[in-house]
């Protein structure tokens, strides 16, 4: 019995020693450098410039303080992302941890030459989360990170986390992640997209907007926004053919993209007022049913039919408006239909004829037209998409205003 007791005590001691020794040897929070954002630029023909933004421990502040938590930004020139991480490990004296990385920014220059190697490297890192957003910056990625200074958040990490929340209710930007980008790189029926980023340019000049439509024909670096920090903005969508950037979409075109992809909860549009062509009406729309896509592939020119339906409420009001009059509401609904049909058609033809990239995944609706995968592959959808013709039908039901029903 005593032998068993001694043996039990020895086993406990061994477990105790092993537990504490492993904890001592393992990486603690003090030994890690947490990366919030990565920026990747082209440096020369063989090297990249990789920028890392790190979180730091905020100093103690008084209760209720609005002091922003500082960050540290460092750049390194290397032949690959892996080499850059290795060099930065040595420089920081801590091991880089990518598990909190929220955004990955590629410069427009690098993206136009193809970024598949960088995307594959990052997605192969078990610490990089597939939910990290991917941004294509119209300025150097290093400068984009340096200029990111959110006005309403003390934590940059929190700002990055909620970065794409407005996607579902404005439609001005997509919620594009590196996981989605990787998946579409390996897709035979769709092409990748990313968020289009840039700078809020405040050159001191008065920004004149002559009509509401101009607010929708903008993209990053063009927004009529004036702020205290003059930092970054994310408006529009970056279009890829395979792994190379081939074009950009404006805010209105991004709304079309998201509406057809069924990724919008609601969105605001401005249409010509059918009662007064010199004015516009602001309409808040909500998808009524999922957008349906049918494709006829009986010949070499695919015929794509798109059906969408929405319900809407009038936001802009005027003194003499009669928004309870069924005839007035019917005219507004018809005006909405014509406007959206034109917008969606122009957008789809732009993706097919200008970009030759099926970013809406129309090819997924084609798969059922073929009996075998080989037949679909032989049709060569991604190359044949440029020959597509489109027919868009929109059915919109407009209700009166939100609170004021008639004036």
Summary, kept brief:
This protein is an alpha/beta fold. The chain has helices spanning 2-25, 81-92, 108-111, 116-124, 141-147, 156-161, 167-170, 178-185, 251-260, 326-355, 373-379, 381-384, and strands at residues 32-42, 48-55, 71-78, 95-97, 103-107, 133-137, 193-199, 232-241, 244-249, 267-273, 276-296, 303-314, 389-401.
Q: What low-confidence regions span 5 or more consecutive residues with pLDDT below 50?
A: 20-26, 60-64, 203-212
- Strand fraction band? 25-35%
Structural class: alpha/beta
What is the N-to-C succession of helices and strands?
A: HEEEHEEHHEHHHHEEEHEEEHHHE
Instruction: Note the gap between the termini.
Output: 95 Å
Look at the structure and give the mean pLDDT. Answer: 85
Based on CA inertia axes, which overall geometry fits? globular
Main sheet properties: 9 strands, mixed
- Whole-number tally of structural domains: 2
Proportion of residues in helical segments:
25-40%
The number of distinct helices, counting runs of at least 4 residues, comes to: 12
Determine Rg (CA atoms, Å): 26 Å
Question: Would you mind describing this structure in some detail?
Answer:
The chain has helices spanning 2-25, 81-92, 108-111, 116-124, 141-147, 156-161, 167-170, 178-185, 251-260, 326-355, 373-379, 381-384; strands at 32-42, 48-55, 71-78, 95-97, 103-107, 133-137, 193-199, 232-241, 244-249, 267-273, 276-296, 303-314, 389-401. The chain is α/β, with parallel strands linked by helices and 407 residues long. The protein has two domains: 29-60 and 68-250, no CATH class; 266-407, GMP Synthetase, Chain A, domain 3 (2-Layer Sandwich). The strands form two sheets. Strands 1, 2, 3, 4, 5, 6, 7, 8 and 9 form a nine-stranded mixed beta sheet that branches. A hairpin with a 2-residue loop joins β8 (232-241) and β9. α4 (116-124) packs across α8 and α9 (251-260) packs across α10 (326-355). The longest helix has 30 residues, at 326-355. The radius of gyration is 26 Å and the shape is globular. Mean pLDDT is 85; it is low at 20-26, 60-64 and 203-212.
